[in-house]
Amino acid sequence: MIRVRIPQKNRELEVPGPRRVMDILAAAGVRPTTVIVTQGKRLLTKDMRVEDGETVEILSVVSGG
Amino acid sequence: MKCKRCRGATAAVDLPSHHAAFCAECFFLFFRGRVEEGIRSLSLLSSSDRVLVCVSGGKDSLVLWDILMELGYQTEGLHIDLGIEGYSERSREKVLAYSASRGKTPIVVDLRAEGIPIPEASRCARKTECSVCGTVKRYFFNRVAAERGFTAVATGHNLDDEAARLLGNLLHWHKEHLSRQHPLLPPSEGGLVRKVKPLWRVSEYETAAYGFLKGIDYVTQECPLSEDATSLVYKEALSLIEDKMPGTRAAFYFGFLKGNPFPRPVPAAEEEAAAGGTARPCATCGAPTFADTCSFCRLREKVRRGAAPRRP
Lengths: 65, 312
Known about the structure:
The structure holds two protein chains of two kinds. By secondary structure, chain A is mostly beta strands. Helices cover 12% and strands 43% of the residues of chain A. In chain A, strands 2-1-7-4-5 form a five-stranded mixed β-sheet, with helices on one face. In chain A, β4 (35-39) and β5 (42-44) form a beta hairpin. The longest helix of chain A has 8 residues, at 21-28. The model of chain A has no long low-confidence stretch (mean pLDDT 94). Helix content of chain B is 45%, strand content 11%. Chain B is built from eleven helices and ten strands. Chain B has helices at residues 24-41, 59-70, 87-101, 118-125, 129-147, 159-171, 175-180, 204-213, 230-244, 248-259, 295-307, and strands at 13-15, 20-22, 50-54, 74-81, 107-110, 152-154, 184-185, 194-196, 280-281, 288-289. In chain B, strands 5-4-3-6-8-7 form a six-stranded mixed β-sheet, with helices on both faces. A two-stranded antiparallel sheet of chain B has the order 1-2. In chain B, 45% of the residues are buried. The model of chain B has no long low-confidence stretch (mean pLDDT 91). Chain A binds chain B through residues 7-8, 31-34, 36, 38, 41-48, 59-65, and chain B through 1, 11-14, 21, 24, 58-60, 129-130, 133, 160-161, 204-205, 207-209, 212-213, 215, 220-223, 225-227, 229, 231-232, 235, 239-240, 242-243.
């Protein structure tokens, strides 16, 4: 399973791997243009494949107020 | 996906709205070019300017400060501690840490010490937190800049912010606001310092990617008082369109700037400009205003009255 962390929402989920970033975002119900997806110090593009057992983080880029 | 510029490295950032994807190094060049072009095309800043950069601790303002320094501008940071429990402490820490990493010491205005923390000001004025926050920030941005001889005040508003604001103004036909919506608000004789938004050509996604790849440690938590902000609704609507039609957000805002049918007032000013006339000193604090008393002093008076013990 791929571990998906969404720290700003205190949310975490697991999705079966391997899977492309855009499919992980769809599984998490997140629109691609509103977030960056990171893995450690790497920024992932939407077409990248994430392997089973790996962890990614989704960070919202939307600031409000 | 390979970088579209160097064609060698793996892309780290994909930008469908530009039909492009870049590795980190090429993305830095792209981003820097967008900001430079934004500054140059509208003559926002010159090399002789002393720029006061307003830094909240979020990605946009820290990235703005970072890139203005990289572009060689003379800058100092101004942080306003809003007095929001928990959130303000974290924000301040990020600003201080970033400043220290660049050998800078920011100017800090503490709204608790000023007697006007945002939650209390909102309650006393019976206005939304975002509304009073805007009034207070604008006041201190200008006051600090004027008192310390800065020639420009720079804020981190990006393309998404400006497009969302434009959508909101159009939906409600706020013609006065539309006439003043521009990345450059010129200075006025009454004492309003020039205000600029150098990130007007880059998106929120691009700014976040730049901040992350540059290793800038910013506050990722959003202001807890802005959860119901209307700007978020407009951003949501625009990102829905952007997902289906990449580039629409930029076309919307850039098109407006090219052909804004709403005449801009000269000099441009704060919200009081809607009342017309030229800026004059506030009867209470001396800050430029278009009314007898500036909106900040009116707000502070409400907070003072709200905080005073009631008579038996």
